[in-house]
Structures are given as C-alpha cells and as structure tokens.
C-alpha cells in the first residue's frame, strides 16, 4: 500500500506476537546515515517494545546499500538470528547509479528470502529526493524502521510455526 494512504508507524499492536524469545539482526547502511540512523532507531525501539531483549538484537553496519546483501547473508549464515532487517537509503542522483544499486540490492535481498530459512526484511528506501526519505524515517509518513520491525517479528513467528 502506498505510504500516502498509510502511515508506516501505524499498526495493530495486539496483532504482533511476543518477541521475547526471538533473535534479530539489523544490517544498516552507513550511506545517508541521518536517514538510516533514524530507521535503525525506529526498528530497534519497536523490537524492544514487543519484548525483544537488547542482547538478542545484533546491529552491524555496512558502507552502502549494495553491501546490505552481503551483510544480511552473513547474518543469516551465522545461525544467531531468527530474522534480519536490512536498512538502507538510496536517493536518485544525476546518473543511472541509483537504478543499479536499487536493482542489485533488491534482487539480492529477494534471493536471500527465496533460498533461506531466515526471513530478510526489506528496509531499503528508494527515493527521488532526500525529503521523501526524511518523511519515511520518522517524518510525516511515519518510520519505515517501525514497519520493518513489526514485519520481522511476524515473519520470525511465521517461520517458527512452519517448523512445528
């Protein structure tokens, strides 16, 4: 659903399972760090609000959004997490670099989801301008980090139920 119709931070609290026994990895791009830092804060706060213990939240940084794929892959392979949240922000510039980075990161994260047993949550903002990113990183449209955390909890729970 388009964010102009739905605030990223609005959700039914009761619909989110308890995350008290879940382990999460968050891989965050250092590029556009004001935005990714706000997204990280939203995700981390939402995870703990739903019972995740701080010691069960692993946060690692990578230089840019393209590197999110490798970072997420390493977290998945570590066996230390039940879900991974990949957080990045790419803002369109004057060259096609934007298209290559967004496409590569998106395909790589999607591939991890289809090939593994650990859900990888897509928290990559792909915006035309910095204001659009700010609006989605705690601004007027909410915080995509909140949405990613809720999705991570629900998907980790889903994966656990599928193993039962």
Give the count of helical stretches. Answer: 5
Radius of gyration: 15 Å
Q: Which regions contain 5 or more consecutive residues with pLDDT less than 50? A: none
Largest sheet, in brief, is: 4 strands, parallel
- What is the beta-strand fraction? 15-25%
Structural class: alpha/beta
Oligomer: single chain
Number of strands: 6
- H-E string: EHEHEHEHEEH
Helix coverage percent of residues?
Answer: 40-55%
The shape is: globular
Give descriptors for this structure.
about 160 residues, alpha/beta, 4-stranded parallel beta sheet, two-stranded antiparallel ribbon, 5 helices, about 45% helix
How would you describe this structure to a colleague?
It is a single chain. The chain is of the alpha/beta class and 164 residues long. Strand 5 and strand 6 form a beta hairpin. Helix 1 crosses helix 5.
Outline of this structure?
Helices cover 45% and strands 21% of the residues. The protein is built from five helices and six strands; from the N terminus they run βαβαβαβαββα.
Q: Strands, helices and their partners?
A:
Blueprint: E1 24-29, H1 33-49, E2 57-62, H2 68-78, E3 83-91, H3 97-115, E4 120-127, H4 130-135, E5 137-139, E6 142-143, H5 144-163
Parallel strand pairs: 1-2, 1-3, 3-4
Antiparallel strand pairs: 5-6
């Amino acid at each position: 659903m388009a964010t102009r119709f739905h605030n990223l931070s609005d959700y039914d609290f009761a619909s989110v399972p308890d995350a008290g026994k879940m382990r999460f990895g968050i891989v965050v791009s250092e590029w556009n760090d004001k935005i990714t830092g706000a997204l990280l804060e939203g995700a981390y706060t939402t995870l703990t609000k739903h019972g995740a213990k701080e010691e069960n939240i692993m946060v690692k940084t990578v230089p840019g959004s393209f590197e999110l794929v490798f970072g997420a892959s390493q977290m998945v392979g570590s066996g230390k997490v039940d879900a991974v949240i990949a957080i990045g922000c790419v803002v369109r510039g004057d060259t096609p670099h934007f298209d290559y980075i967004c496409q590569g990161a998106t395909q790589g994260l999607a591939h991890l989801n289809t090939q593994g047993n650990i859900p990888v949550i897509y928290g990559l903002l792909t915006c035309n301008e910095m204001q659009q990113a700010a609006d989605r990183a705690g601004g007027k449209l909410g915080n995509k980090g909140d949405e990613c955390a809720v999705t991570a909890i629900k998907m980790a729970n889903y994966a656990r139920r599928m193993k039962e």
